[in-house]
Amino acid sequence: MKQEKTRQTIQFLKIIFLIFMIGLTVGCAGYKATGILDERAGRSSSGEVIMAEPAYPEVAVGAPGMEADESYSRKNMIYPAPMPPYQETEGDITTDRKIIKTASLSVEVDDYDAAAIKVMNLAQKYSGFVTDSSAYTDKNGKKKGHINIRIPSEHFDAALIETGTFGKVKSQTTGGNDVTEEYIDLKARLNNSRKEEERLQTILTKAEDVNDILRVEREISRVRGEIERLQGRIQYMDNHVSFSSLQIEIYEPTPVVKESGLYKAFKDAINLALGTIRFLIRALGLLLPLILLGMIAVLIILGFRRRNKGRRKGR
Questions:
Q1: Domain of residue 164, residue span
Q2: Is residue 244, in this structure, part of any structural domain at all?
Q3: Given this model, what pLDDT does residue 285 score?
Q4: What angle do CA 185, 242, 150 make, to 5 degrees?
Q5: Cβ of 52: how many Cβ atoms within 10 Å?
């Protein structure tokens, strides 16, 4: 009985010792995790805040007019804090409404050459220009073609009305593409890119390490390419907003021949007879090989018969 109690006491002490070891292990792990979090958060174990060095090119900044001293230690160097990207809202840019106007007309005229000259004179009259033109003559000897011109947008309506007086307008289509929102967005992005380039140029003048200089120059090259792309798009839109497009199709009317009933009937009869002859010729062309094969077969059969008759007579 006494040995049983001793055994139970030993087992109880083992359980208490095991619980103690588990608690000690958990406490050490939690303390270590807390130290890691404090280190990542920029705090020491005593609760003081530790300022981390920014991931930025190391630049030594001195007073204006003073050169950077190479003997400065790492602690004496000043690291500029990373600047947030400049953002410019659409409200910072004011612009007039940008609309690209286009129109296309189909005009029937009595004299193509005279009408084409009028269109070219119209472009010169309103300080515009001809972008391209083409013309051809159909089987009836009538001229047709088109002329595309660019007209300053302030004269677009007047030029469109005047073009309608050159002949009989058969069709007309006008349109306007409002690009104001896209234009404002491009201007804002261009301003942001220019400011970013200025910041990079400032950093480049202060950079000393070769790797930092090369990295900043690559960024400047990338930003410069973006600026040129935006400038090209803005210039394209300015050009199409300032000068509207006018596409004009000009053609001479095709003559309509009136025929009498008797003449039309005689003409139809001739066409029908010619159609029948054409059909027979096609049919003959189809049957001719069959006819030739039949004739060859008949000749072979006749030859065999004559040969058999000759043999019989010889016997």
A1: 95-257
A2: yes
A3: 80
A4: 135
A5: 8
- Taking a C-beta distance cutoff of 8 angstroms, is the pair 129, 189 a contact? no
For residue 152, give both structure tokens.
Answer: 């300053």
pLDDT above 50: residue 196: yes
Burial of 103 (C-beta count, 10 Å sphere; 0-12/13-18/19+):
buried
pLDDT digits (tens, 9 = 90+) for 78-101: 333 344 443 444 445 556 789 999
Q: Is residue 89 part of a domain?
A: no
Nearest alpha carbon to residue 203 among 214, 192, 193, 190: 214
Q: Is residue 291 part of a domain?
A: no
Model confidence pLDDT, tens digit, residues 249-286: 999 988 766 656 777 777 888 888 888 888 888 887 88
Query: Number of structural domains, the chain?
Result: 1
pTM above 0.90, yes or no: no
Mean pLDDT of 167-196: 92
3-state secondary structure labels for all residues of 95-159: CCCCEEEEEEEEEECCCHHHHHHHHHHHHHHCCCEEEEEEEEECCCCCEEEEEEEEEEHHHHHHH
User: Would the pLDDT of 26 be above 70?
Assistant: no
Token pair, residue 300, equals 């072979």
In a domain, 55, yes or no: no
In this structure, the number of other CB atoms found within 10 A of the CB of residue 128 comes to 21
User: How many whole angstroms separate alpha carbon 115 and alpha carbon 302?
Assistant: 79
Please give the full DSSP string across 14-52, using - where no structure is assigned: HHHHHHHHHHHHHHHHHHHHHHHHHHHHTB-TTS-B-PP
